[in-house]
Write a structure and sequence with these properties.
single chain; 337 residues; alpha/beta; Quinone Oxidoreductase, Chain A, domain 1; 2 domains; 6-stranded parallel beta sheet; 28% helix; binds zinc ion
Length: 337
């Protein structure tokens, strides 16, 4: 089969479109013919060498396709599926209580195992989510971005109509998913972007207000939209560089949903504000299968409309990575084998 692999970590140039053996599913696993695979920042981190992956390695965490070989009696070949990307042992204390994204030996498809930058991928049958109603090109936009946004905002922070949610990086894949999810949950949405050119796109996806956090005072703007109070929820997927500003933007009793560390892992936070204003710091990592099933259903009902920025052939994976690294994207990039 054709696959995009790298034989040693590095720049986008290490990605090679080449022949690779078709994976052989074991008991309890299935072979999926990949119809679409989303490109995510986690792919870039893996390619850059942040994780200890076996080499050569095939990236790709957001996979939609069709089951072609099943070694599980409950799964029929021919089924259209979306892959739940969190791998778990199914046996630890967290798995037993139904939280595989807390699993002690947690991993992701496309990081811990070969992923969907290929014509075929093998995954555990328990990771399949039936997806007959949603086009695979749309389904493949969902797990990492929409599943994670749903996990952080709906499952963890319990966002509702009384909330004002500030979203960092609101034009990117994850940020824009958070804008749409927060809006669907009934919240008022303030979108932070680093470039005025992205403002109209972000507004078209549901943001009530857009602030350029590079040229404007974000905290002051957020207060101006909230009667001086601040946002009740901040969705911060940027990390160390933005934590302090996120806390500054929160209203008393506010919740900060924090995930990812694109800008680094260290932060100087005014701890006094956290306790005196009774702020909650809510970490979120990955997503549950239920989070993805939920957003898949909302997409099938037309209540969420993922933005697809570009659909590229698998052979153009290198271009996809270069686009994401240049931070010029609005919505999702898909690779189509
Ligand atoms: Zn476990």
């Amino acid at each position: 089969m054709k696959a995009v692999r790298y034989h040693s970590p590095g720049s986008p140039d290490v990605l090679s479109f080449e022949d690779a053996p078709v994976p052989e599913p074991r008991a309890g696993e299935v072979l999926v013919r990949v119809k679409a695979c989303g490109v995510n920042r986690i792919d870039i981190w893996a390619r850059s060498g942040r994780y200890n992956t076996a080499l050569p390695h095939t990236l790709g965490t957001d996979v939609a396709g069709e089951v072609v070989v099943s070694n599980d009696r409950a799964v029929m070949p021919g089924s259209n599926v979306l892959v739940y990307p969190v791998l778990s042992d199914g046996t630890c204390a967290y798995c037993r209580r139904g939280a595989p994204n807390l699993c002690l030996s947690r991993g992701f498809v496309g990081v811990a195992t070969d992923g969907g930058y290929a014509e075929f991928v093998k995954v555990p049958a328990k990771n399949l989510i039936p997806s007959e109603k949603v086009d695979p090109n749309v389904a493949a936009t969902l797990p990492v971005n929409y599943g994670t946004a749903w996990s952080g905002l709906a499952s963890r922070a319990r966002v509702g109509p009384d909330d004002t949610v500030l979203v960092w990086g609101a034009a990117g894949g994850l940020g824009n998913a958070a804008v749409q999810v927060a809006k669907y949950l009934g919240a008022k949405v303030i979108a932070a972007v680093g470039d005025d050119a992205k403002s109209s796109f972000v507004k078209s996806t549901g943001a009530d207000h857009v602030v350029n956090n590079r040229t404007e005072d974000l905290a002051e703007r957020v207060r101006s939209f909230t009667g001086g109070l601040g946002a009740s929820v901040v969705f911060d997927h940027v990390g160390g560089d933005t934590w302090g500003k996120s806390i500054e933007c929160l209203a008393r009793g506010g919740r900060m949903v924090t995930l990812g560390l694109t800008s680094g892992a260290k932060s100087d936070v005014d701890v006094r504000r956290v306790y005196s204003d009774q702020l909650s710091i809510i970490g979120t990592y990955g997503q549950s299968k239920g989070d993805i099933e939920h957003v898949l259903e909302l997409v099938a009902e037309g209540k969420l409309k993922p933005s697809i920025y570009k659909e590229l052939p698998l052979s153009s994976a290198r271009d996809a990575h270069e686009i994401i690294e240049s931070r010029g994207i609005q919505g999702k990039i898909l690779l189509l084998p």
